[in-house]
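Supplementary Methods S3. Complex input for the coenzyme A-bound model.
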Amino acid sequence: MTTDKKLSGAGLRGQVAGQTSLCTVGTQGSGLNYRGYDVDDLADNCIFEEVAHLILKGHLPTQTELDSYRAKLSGLRELPAALKAALELIPADAHPMDVMRTGVSMLGNLEQETSFEQQGDRVDRILALLPAMVVYWYRFAKDGTRTSTDTGAATIGGHFLHMLHGEKPSELHEQVMNVSLILYAEHEFNASTFNGRVAASTLTDIHSVITGAIGTLRGPLHGGANEAAMEMIEQWSSADEAEAAILNKLANKELIMGFGHAVYKERDPRNAIIKKWSEKLAQEVGDEVLYPVSVRCEEVMKREKGMFCNADFFHASAYNFMGIPTGLFTPIFVMSRITGWAAHAFEQRANNRIIRPSAEYTGPEHRKVEPIAERG
Ligand code: COA
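Predicted complex, serialized as structure tokens:
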């Protein structure tokens, strides 16, 4: 491989690798839209289930369609006994993303997708179960509690918070979860979605598509950045301390998690939205450290590197203010992005050709196998 990553086309940056009608990134409207709707319009006017319906079923639901979709999803929240038993076997020090990966894989054994006609139902089931999968394991591993999945919550975000904290969340927290899930729902050919499309192009089952995508999202350069950002900002007790530490990291050429983007060049349109909610939550909890630290990081990165926060940065403080443990940050991303992953798989299946690019070879010249005694 050539050492100049910028000249080699490394990372497939800027190359069109297929078609989609699901999403545009950095080209229209506010910079991110799902099936033609700006993400800020959706975040201001919809709950996540409406956006899930838009992405998965192709249009924003009518009230009747929304009511029946929510009723369907609520009716699918009970974890199968065999899945609970499997979750109870996962060690307490496992990473929650690995728990989700295993959970979806186990579900694929229990409720197989044997025909593509089942794809919509299988995905609705995964969408409904993901919050319970991770929270059931989390609470069992922490203190042996076998959490009830019967919360009666009206939304997926509310259901997640209710199971996690053992009580109905406030309206504000449920609203922030809705916005957050909307912001994370879909993002064109990002790494995990592309991974999912490659898997889908082999005509494998939907659980394999989602399992692979979860594993890809887990990395700190992708979805794992919200967790990595939290681990960074929680070390600092004041904005001045944060500024000095960021300057030091930059001098050492370290990556600052939650900044930069492979496609956006000037701003990530999701940042202003989640930043506003993080500020609101900071006021609610009386925070005088984490939010000012986060704002200072944003200012310093802009001033020093001309870089901006991506969606993950202010998600870190927002989730923290709602009492969500850091390890569960990226799993929330999964609860949302399942919609985008699945819709891309459906799109790939509908007009499939196996994804099989070529590589530029940089290894040795053609040669013959030497007898084993003559190899040095
Ligand atoms: N902190 C410090 N420097 C950064 C940076 C960051 N977060 N992100 C990019 N840079 C630097 C790169 O090191 C590179 O420097 P160089 O030219 O001296 O090698 C330069 O900025 C250009 O990077 P670019 O080519 O635009 O990045 P990329 O497209 O290869 O990678 C990310 C994009 C998102 C993976 C990268 O910005 C990153 O690692 N960010 C932190 C992780 C993160 O927040 N991920 C979530 C993405 S939504």
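The mean pLDDT is 96. The longest helix spans residues 119-143.
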